[in-house]
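re: ur question from earlier - yeah i can do the single chain one, its not a big deal. heres the input i used so u can compare w yours
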Amino acid sequence: MLLSRGDENAGAILIQLLEKGQFYGLFERVLALETGYSWQRVGPQVIDNIREIDEYLTRRQQRDPDLWLIELDIANGERLIAEMSD
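and the output i got, formated as tokens:
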């Protein structure tokens, strides 16, 4: 599901990964000069409260109004992230 649509030519891309409705992590597409684009885990790492995630995403959207935010609720989502980094 597309939660926030950014500019077609700019803005960071974040994937909010869920599994059966449970938060699993936030991943951002980043450019590394040596290896090209890859996906890295960002944001709060230990989640005791979903509000921490919402606050992080609000701050990111304030700094980058072109931010793309995509939510995926899939089984074994980290495998998909790893495959997209290849």
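Helices lie at 50-63, 77-85. not sure if urs matches, ping me
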